[in-house]
Every structure is written in structure tokens, then in C-alpha cells.
């Protein structure tokens, strides 16, 4: 399947799940030494093949498609440069994740799905959207293999070896945030489930119970 079709399907699910509103958020998928990234001003639930720009990762040159890529294209390119294993980047505005991070409340991973897909969450200090400072800070935060970043008072940047897994991670990140928020409303501090404590032998890069790569299941049903 054309990666643009996969990204468009993911975009519809993100909007339906309330992870982005209006023209917020942007998506990308690596294709060789370039990536398809959503164009400026696009809505994630109305994406067509013409709503993407093909951008060279090394220097940001637009090679094909829409002439104006997302204003957050630098975030995507910086991530691909430091993470050759990453094939998809999802940038959304999940409100509960952003709220908890702004209040310095860690997002607790409560279920086996949260532990398997999210693994860990790192907070990135605030930098204005669309700037090289934000792109550089996010790249530095994920360089060690972290796949789920919360960008302070802005959104999230979630990475994956394919579009489906990046999407599943993003959906599980916000699900974990909502569960954490609900527990805090009840006056409870929810326990954290570490993947090492529930796996039966995870493979490098992340295995789901039973071994192998995590399947596209859990929140959102990818």
C-alpha cells in the first residue's frame, strides 16, 4: 500500500479518537532518503494523495507533491536523521498527555498494552512550534531509542518502525494519559507496569507477550 494511503487512514482514526482538532498535527513516512509529510494547512481526516510533500531528509528540499510541507517538517527530518530505524513519525495534540506533562504529572503505564507499545515517555521542554530549536530538542530526546515524546504545552511526537506501530503507540500514549488522569481524580496514584515485569522474553526493539514485534492492536485497533 502507498504510505500516503496508510497515513491518511491513520489520520482519520486520530481525529476520531480526539487526538487532534482542525488542521493541527502532521504525519510522515520515510521513503528511502526522503519522506512523505503532510502539507501545510491539511486536516488529518481529509487527507488525499495530493496532501503530501516528498521531502529529502538530508536538506529539506521538496522533491515532489505539495510545494509547502507542514510547518513542523523540521521535527520529522531531525528525527529521521538521528533514528535510522524509524520509518514513521506521528505528531499530534493529545490534550490529556499535554495537560499531565504541563502539570509535571508523569503518564503512568497501567496496562500490558501501555507497557508493550509505549515503554517509556520523555518530556521535551517548551520550544516554539515549527522551530529548529524544537526539532533539535526532540531529536536529542529520542536519539537513545525512546519512541514517545511529549512536547511541553504543545503535543506529542511518536515514532515507529512502520506507520501502524507508530499509530498504535500514539493511541496507547493518550489512553495511558487518560487512565492516569482518571486515577488522579479518584485521589489515587496508579501503579506503573514495566514491560520487563510482564513480558515472556521481549525481542530487541520490542516484543509483545509471546515474542516478536508488537502487533497492531490495543487502543484504536490498528
Q: CATH architecture, please?
A: 3-Layer(aba) Sandwich
Strand order of the largest sheet: 4-3-2-1-5-8-7-6
| Cα separation of the termini | 15 Å
How many H/I helices?
Answer: 7
Number of domains: 1
| Major β-sheet profile | 8 strands, mixed
Helix content percent band = 25-40%
Low-confidence stretches: 201-222
* Helix/sheet category: alpha+beta
The CATH superfamily name is Class II aldolase/adducin N-terminal domain
Mean model confidence by pLDDT: 90
CATH topology type: L-fuculose-1-phosphate Aldolase
- Specify Rg, calculated over alpha carbons: 16 Å
The share of residues in extended strands comes to: 15-25%
- The CATH class: Alpha Beta
Following the backbone from N to C, one meets helices and strands in this order, namely HEEEEHEHHEHEEHH
Shape: globular
Count every beta strand, where a strand is a DSSP E run of 2 or more residues: 8
Structure description:
The chain has 222 residues and is an alpha+beta fold. It has one domain: Class II aldolase/adducin N-terminal domain (L-fuculose-1-phosphate Aldolase), CATH 3.40.225. Helices cover 35% and strands 17% of the residues. The protein has helices spanning 3-16, 73-82, 95-102, 112-118, 132-142, 163-185, 195-198; strands at residues 26-31, 34-38, 52-56, 62-65, 88-92, 122-124, 148-151, 155-160. The chain has an 8-stranded mixed β-sheet with strand order 4-3-2-1-5-8-7-6, with helices on both faces. A hairpin with a 2-residue loop joins β1 (26-31) and β2. α2 (73-82) packs parallel to α5 (132-142). The protein is globular, with a radius of gyration of 16 Å. The two termini are 15 Å apart. The model is unreliable at 201-222 (pLDDT under 50).
Amino acid at each position: 500500500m502507498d504510505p500516503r494511503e496508510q497515513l491518511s487512514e491513520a489520520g482519520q482514526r486520530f481525529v476520531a479518537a480526539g487526538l487532534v482538532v482542525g488542521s493541527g498535527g502532521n504525519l510522515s513516512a520515510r521513503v528511502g532518503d526522503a519522506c512523505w509529510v503532510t502539507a501545510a494547512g491539511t486536516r488529518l481526516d481529509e487527507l488525499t494523495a495530493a496532501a503530501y510533500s516528498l521531502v529529502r531528509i538530508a536538506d529539506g528540499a521538496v522533491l515532489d507533491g505539495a510545494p509547502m510541507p507542514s510547518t513542523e517538517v523540521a521535527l520529522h527530518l531531525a528525527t529521521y536523521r538521528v533514528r535510522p530505524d524509524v520509518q514513521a513519525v506521528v505528531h499530534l495534540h493529545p490534550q490529556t498527555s499535554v495537560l499531565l506533562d504541563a502539570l509535571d504529572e508523569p503518564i503512568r503505564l497501567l496496562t500490558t498494552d501501555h507497557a508493550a507499545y509505549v515503554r517509556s515517555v520523555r518530556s521535551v521542554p517548551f520550544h516554539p512550534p515549527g522551530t529548529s530549536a524544537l526539532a533539535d530538542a526532540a531529536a536529542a530526546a529520542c536519539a537513545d531509542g525512546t519512541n514517545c515524546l511529549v512536547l511541553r504545552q504543545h503535543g506529542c511526537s511518536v515514532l515507529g518502525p512502520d506507520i501502524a506501530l507508530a499509530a498504535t503507540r500514539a493511541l496507547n500514549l493518550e489512553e495511558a494519559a487518560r487512565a492516569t488522569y482518571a486515577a488522579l481524580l479518584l485521589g489515587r496514584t496508579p501503579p506503573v507496569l514495566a514491560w520487563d515485569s510482564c513480558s515472556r522474553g521481549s525481542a530487541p526493539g520490542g516484543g509483545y507477550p509471546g515474542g516478536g514485534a508488537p502487533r497492531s492492536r490495543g487502543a484504536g485497533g490498528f
